[in-house]
UniProtKB/TrEMBL annotation:
It holds the Pfam family GCV_T_C. Decreases the sensitivity of PDP1 to magnesium ions, and this inhibition is reversed by the polyamine spermine. Residues 343-626 form the GCVT N-terminal domain. Belongs to the GcvT family. Residues 286-341 form the FAD dependent oxidoreductase central domain. Heterodimer of a catalytic (PDP1) and a regulatory (PDPR) subunit. Residues 646-739 form the Aminomethyltransferase C-terminal domain. GO terms for cellular component: mitochondrial matrix. PANTHER family: AMINOMETHYLTRANSFERASE, PYRUVATE DEHYDROGENASE PHOSPHATASE REGULATORY SUBUNIT, MITOCHONDRIAL-LIKE. Signal peptide: none annotated. This is Pyruvate dehydrogenase phosphatase regulatory subunit, mitochondrial. Gene3D superfamilies: Aminomethyltransferase beta-barrel domains (3.30.70.1400), D-Amino Acid Oxidase, subunit A, domain 2 (3.30.9.10), FAD/NAD(P)-binding domain (3.50.50.60), Probable tRNA modification gtpase trme, domain 1 (3.30.1360.120). Its main location: mitochondrion.
Amino acid sequence: MADYSNKLYEQLEQETGVKTGYLKTGSISLAQTQDRLISLKRIASSLNVTGIPCEIITPKQVAQLHPLINIHDLVGAMYVPGDALVSSADVSLALATAASRNGVQIHERTSVSHVLVQKGRVTGVETDRGQISCQYFVNCAGQWAEVFTPPLHSFPSTFLSSAAIVDPDGRIYIRNWQGGILSGGFEKNPKPLFTEGRNQLEIQNLQEDWDHFEPLLSALLRRMPDLEALQIMQLVNCPETFTPDMRCIMGESPAVRGYFVLAGMNSAGISYGGGAGKYLAEWMVNGYPSENVWPLDLKRFGSLQSSRTFLRHRVMEVMPLICDLKVPRWDFQTGRQLRTSPLYDRLDAQGARWMEKHGFERVKYFVPPGKDLLDLDQSKTFYKPDWFDIVGSEVKCCKEAVCVIDMSSFTKFEISSTGDQALESLQYLFSNDLDVPVGHVVHTGMLNEQGGYENDCSIARLSKRSFFMISPTDQQVHCWSWLKNHLPSDSNLTVEDVTWKYTALNLIGPRAVDVLSELSYAPITPEHFPSLFCKEMSVGYANGIRVMSITHTGEPGFMLYIPIEYALHVYNEVMNMGQKYGIRNAGYYALRSLRIEKFFAFWGQDLDAFTTPMECGREFQVKLEKGMEFLGQEALLEQKQHGVYKRFTMFILEDHDTDMDLWPWWGEPIFRNGRYVGKTTSSAYSYTLERHVCLGFVQHFDEKTGEELVVTTDFINQGEYEIDIAGQRFQAKAKLYPFSSLFTQRRRKEEVELSGYQRE
C-alpha cells in the first residue's frame, strides 16, 4: 500500500496542478541492537524482491547520508532511497480536486446523523442538510473512534534534502518540514482520549504536555545533539486512531451490504492512504480487491473487540508496540483471558503457556515441572527458541504414544433444513461433494468466483438434512457473513453458530485408539471407524460426544467435540485412562510442526482468497467430474485446462544449522536458480527429519519479458532453490508430495546404508 501511495503522490501534482510538497528524500531506519538489525534485514529482503530498492548500511554510511546524526550507539541501518515526504493536507486537497473534476460532489461541514438501511443493505444517508440516496457508504471517520495522542515536535533548521530518520529503539522519527524539521514519536505511556464516547467535533490541537513529551525530546537530542542550540517553535498534540492489532481496518460490514469501512490507520494514514483507497475502490467495484487483504479485513474482528474497556487497555499496549521489536511468535498482553475453554484453569495449572487467536486463549506448549517459567516467557529471539526441546518432546509423544490438544477455538456451525435445502445450498457453496453417507466427514473449500479459498473446512454429515461445519478460529465472523450472503432466504434452512457449545479435544497418536476404545466400550478399529468418519459416542459417563477420525496433522487419532458441560469430565477421563499409554498434554506449536512436515496447508497462513485447490494440490477435493455446479467451478475448469501460475511447494533446508543460524518463520523470499519466484507462507522445524521445513508458493516468470508462465511439475523439480533468511540464502530441496513419502525414502536409505555397512 505504501509503495502504491508513493507512486500516486509522485504524479499527483502534475495531474492536478495542486502542489503536494512531494520530495524524494529516502528514509533511514536505525538499529541500536543486533536483534533490531536482524528485523531490518528481514524487511529489506522482502522489500528488494517486491521491487522496492533497499539496502542495509553501516553506521558510517548513516553519517555520510545524514551528518548530524549521532551514530555512536548504532550497529547498522536500513536505507530506502525511494521513500519521500509530502504535505498530507496538500495531498488531500489534490485528491479532492481530481475527484471534483470527475464529478464527485464534496459537502464540507456537513454532519451525517444516520445511515439508512433497508433489507440489510445501504440505501442512503441522513445529513443535517437533507437526505442523500446511495448504494454504498464508506466510513472513513478516522479519529471518531477510540484515540490516542502521539505528540509531534517541530524545530527550525535546514534539512531540505536530508533523508527522513526513523529510530524505533529511540521511539522517534525525524523529517524536514517547511524549512525546519518535525519530530515526534510513540511514547511508552500513551494517554487515552474520549474513552466515555464523547469526541471533539472536528480535528483540533489538544493542550501541550511537555512532561509527557520529555522522554521523546531527550531521545531526539541524543540522536541529534546539535539541536540543543535551536529554538522550539511549537508542540503539536493531536488525536490519532489505533486498532487492537496495529493493522488498519477495511472492507464491507458483515451486518450491512454496501457499508464499507476504511479507518484506524495507526498513525500511517498518509503512507498507506493511496494504496488502501485503491484496494477499497476495487472491492466496491469488482466485489474483491486485487490482493489478499485478509489481515486488514474488518471481519477479522468480532463484537468482543468493541468493548470500551478492551479497546482502552489494548490500544494503550498497541501504540508503544509500533516501535517495540517484534520477534516471531510474540503475543499481546492486554485483553487476554477473554474467551477460554472450560479447561483453561486445569491446563494452566499444568504449565500451559498461552497465545491468543480471535480473542480465544490457545496453548502454545506445556512447561514441564522444574523449568524456569519466567525465562521461557521472556525468551524472544530470531534464532533457536528456548521452547525447542519442550515442543520436540510433545511431537515425539504425538508420534509414539498419545497427546491431547485443546482446540476449542475452532469455529463451528450447524446447518440444517426441513427438506433438502441444506444439502442443495451447501453443494453449490462448497467445492467437494457433500452428498455422502451419514457419518462421513468431507474436507472441502468454500470458494469465491475466482476459485479462491474464502474458507477451508471440514463438514460432517450428521443426518440426511443436518451438517456440522468446522472452520479456522478467525473465520467466525467472515464465514457467518459469507453464508448469510450466499445462502437462500429460506425459513426452512437454519444456520447456527455453535462455537461456544462444544469443547474440542484433539487426541493424537498411535495409542489414541486404545484410550478411546477403553473409555467408550466401542470398537474403534479402522474397520468399524474408518478415516474421515463421525460418530456420536459415550466417553466415560458423558453421552453425545461427536468423535471424528481426523486430527488436522496427518497423524492417527480423533477429534472429540464435547458439549461444554461434559468437557472437564471427558478430559479427566481421557487423561486418567491414558496414563498407561504415556499420555501428555501438547500445544499448537507441536501441531504446527506436525502439519507442516506432512505438507498440510492451513487457511489464513498458506491459503487465502487468491489460492485455488488446483494451486495447492487439492484437485481430489473438487467435484469437477461429477457434473454438479458450484461456486468457483468455471475458474477451476480454466486452470485444469490451461494450468496454474503458482504452485504450493514444500522446501527442506539443506545447509541450515538449527543451533547457530537464524530461523525461517514465514515471509522469506524463495529463489530458483538465483531468481526470485515467491515467498514462504509458513515454516517449522521437523523433529522427524531434523531439519527446517518451509511451505510456500512458486511462480514462473519469463526471464526476458517478465510474463507470468504456467508452473509445471518439471519446473518445480528441475530447479535449484534457496530460501533467503534476513539476507542470507540457504539451499533447499523442493517437494510436491507429502512427507510420508519422504519418511519411507529416508528409512529405505538408512536400511541401505546399514546393510552396506554390514557388508563392508
